[in-house]
Specification:
The chain is of the alpha/beta class and 228 residues long. It is built from four helices and eleven strands.
Length: 228
């Protein structure tokens, strides 16, 4: 990681003292790190495993598809015939920031395979892009209402430079999502199925959001990983 990488500002929630695992959870476009903070007590992890939840704040930047309005965003999104296209340089910049947060957690005594990357929408895209290319084995990737942003960076057949064969990945989407159409998520699902990851796919009767059924499934999946 370059020495000049600036780590995103973060807030943290610990389910118990002396955490043995970390979940780095990235918010969606226009939100901030507080967005998913309230979900922690709803996951049913308290008392079972000590987990540090790290919620980064994306930087402020103009977002072209939103009329250039300045908001917290992990990357710019530009209009395209397919709906939108992503700023690859911004994605790589956000990847470096997330890698820095992973390094900070390992420096605090958390083993790499006890770190889960999570995210919603843009945040999920960065979690997928980073986790599928990370050189050490991570604990898992939780990606909600999102897609793989630079699919050509992920090789099929488990030929990625990262050790992702068998990596647990939870991918979920709303079947009425008007912002990131379900077919885009399904294309990412098919891509991931070709990489050898241990994929768990869910579709929910909702739009671009999170519902109670999904939260219960996330808690079960995370608990199964982190209690092991």
């Amino acid at each position: 990681m370059p020495d000049d990488v600036r780590l995103p500002e973060t807030l943290e929630v610990e389910t118990a003292s002396a955490p043995s695992a970390s979940v780095i959870w990235l918010h969606g476009l226009g939100a901030d790190g507080h967005d998913f903070e309230p979900i922690v007590p709803e996951l049913g992890l308290a008392g079972d495993v000590a987990v540090r939840f790290v919620f980064p704040h994306a930087p402020y930047r103009p977002v072209t598809i939103n009329g250039g309005y300045v908001m917290r965003a992990w990357y710019d999104m530009l209009p395209a015939p397919s709906g939108f296209t992503d700023d690859a340089d911004h994605i790589l910049e956000s990847e470096q920031g997330l890698r820095g947060l992973i390094a900070r957690e390992t420096g605090r005594g958390i083993a790499t395979d006890r770190i889960v990357l999570a995210g919603f929408s843009q945040g999920g895209a960065i979690a997928l892009h980073t986790g599928l290319r990370y050189p050490q084995r991570l604990g898992g990737i939780l990606a909600l209402s999102t897609y793989v942003p630079i699919p050509e960076a992920i090789s099929p057949g488990g030929q990625s430079p990262a050790p992702i064969a068998g990596l647990p990945v939870f991918l979920a989407h709303g079947d009425r999502d008007p912002l990131i159409p379900r077919p885009l998520a399904e294309a990412s699902r098919e891509l991931l199925q070709g990489t050898g990851v241990k994929l768990e796919w869910h579709a929910y009767a909702m739009e671009h959001t999170v519902n109670l059924e999904e939260i219960a499934d996330i808690g079960r999946w995370l608990g199964g990983l982190l209690r092991a």
